[in-house]
Design a protein that fits this description.
elongated; two-stranded antiparallel ribbon; mainly alpha; 15 helices; Farnesyl Diphosphate Synthase; 4 strands; two-stranded antiparallel sheet
Length: 396
């Protein structure tokens, strides 16, 4: 019996097998494995730097590839031959089973190579990639958590494995990068799953969009992506990531902002490409360390007007948000209610010496600096502006 549904002979069979190599989804995990190697090569471990081991890198990349290939084969087999979800599939049911067996054997040999060159722990970090791929359908895609986090977790495991086969250990930095990938890519996956909510519901797939609805799903998705970008900045400030890592958030945030206005299909397309850019800039930041040693801009040169300058900046942002959302009355009510409490809190903490404000004009009003009065206006207005803008976007 032929393995290809369209055509006969070895050529048709090879074409059918090759059709299950999906570069769009294979590239991020393979790139994550290579990024792990780069990160290991630029991470200080004790007294010496790690030297890249090409054989270990190749073995791990091959294992990651066969894990992904298994996932694509199994997903196509289930969606077409079992669920009748897809309109067509190039492989027969027998062809899918044979290809799955072959991919599993390929993975096993690659896994043995990983263990041989990097040890059993490296194998334990690599094996779950195949397990996730094989169980994605029809097991994992019937639960919102595993349906969403399966692929991002596979990318994170590829990163950890790529690092470990080079370094022989895991560092806090690589664990933090893996966490960022899981969080941010889970957001992208939720958006992707909003494309097929009705059909997924009809066949028992339990994605986040099915469980909570498309609108709520998109809110969670962009929240996860925002959290991922925040973690990059926070880890860079903490020194865990290279300072240049913050540059990787710029293209992703721009693309995500554009995606908020697109339908699920367009948004997914944009976000996938944004994820490529994000990973590419991260690799460059780790490899070249572009902002290493570059000090932060010192606005202290404004002297006594420094605090006022920051309030003017954020006040302008608050003004823009309130104007956009038409939330002037809401902001005014909030400020009126909070101001007396904030005033007492501020006066007391200044009085007992909890904090000091050296870069200020020295002008005081009602026992506290002028700048603190403005602060108590700007912050609530900014919060209301953000809240009302988000609510406006959601309702719209």
């Amino acid at each position: 019996m032929a393995i290809a549904r369209h055509g006969a002979g070895p050529t048709a069979g090879l074409q059918a097998l090759g059709s299950q190599v999906h570069p769009v989804f294979m590239l991020p995990p393979l790139a994550a494995s290579a990024f792990g190697a780069v990160l290991a090569g630029t991470t200080r471990l004790g007294a010496t730097d790690v030297t890249l081991a090409p054989l270990a890198l190749v073995a791990h990349l091959v294992a990651v590839f066969f894990g992904l290939y298994t996932a694509h084969l199994k997903d196509g087999y289930v969606d077409f031959h079992i669920r009748s979800e897809d309109d067509d599939h190039p492989l027969t049911a027998r062809g899918c089973r044979l290809a799955l067996a072959g991919a599993t054997v390929g993975f096993a040999f690659a896994l043995a190579g990983v263990v041989a060159v990097a040890g059993p722990v490296a194998g334990l970090l690599t094996l779950p990639g195949w397990v996730i791929g094989y169980l994605h359908a029809p097991q994992f895609d019937t639960n919102p958590v595993t349906a969403t986090a399966g692929y991002p977790t596979g990318v994170a495991l590829a990163l950890l494995g790529g690092f470990y086969v080079q370094a022989g250990t895991l560092s806090p930095a690589v664990l933090a990068f893996a966490a960022v990938f899981v969080v941010a890519l889970s957001g992208v996956k939720v958006v992707d799953d909003t494309k097929d909510v009705l059909y997924d519901r009809s066949i028992g797939k339990r994605t986040v969009a099915v469980a909570l609805g498309p609108r709520r799903g998109r809110e969670i998705a962009f929240g996860l992506m925002g959290l991922g970008m925040f973690l990059v900045v926070a880890f860079a400030i903490d020194g865990l990531f290279p300072t240049g890592s913050v540059l990787a958030t710029v293209p992703f945030v721009v693309v995500a902002a554009l995606a908020t206005r697109g339908d699920p299909e367009l948004a997914t397309m944009l976000l996938i490409r944004g994820a490529y850019l994000f990973l590419a800039v991260l690799v460059a930041a780790v490899w070249f360390r572009p902002l290493a040693g570059v000090p932060l801009p010192d606005i202290g040169v404004l002297g006594p007007y420094t605090y006022l300058a920051t309030e003017a900046l954020f006040g302008t942002g608050a003004f823009a948000l309130l104007w956009r959302a038409g939330a002037w009355r809401a902001a005014a009510r909030t400020v009126v209610v909070l101001y007396p409490l904030a005033y007492l809190w501020d006066w007391y903490t200044l009085e007992v010496g909890v904090f000091a404000i050296p870069l200020r004009t020295g002008v005081e009003l009602l026992g506290i600096p002028l700048e603190e009065h403005l602060f108590m206006l700007v912050v609530p207005a900014f919060v209301v502006g953000v809240h009302e803008s988000l609510r406006h976007d959601t309702d719209g």
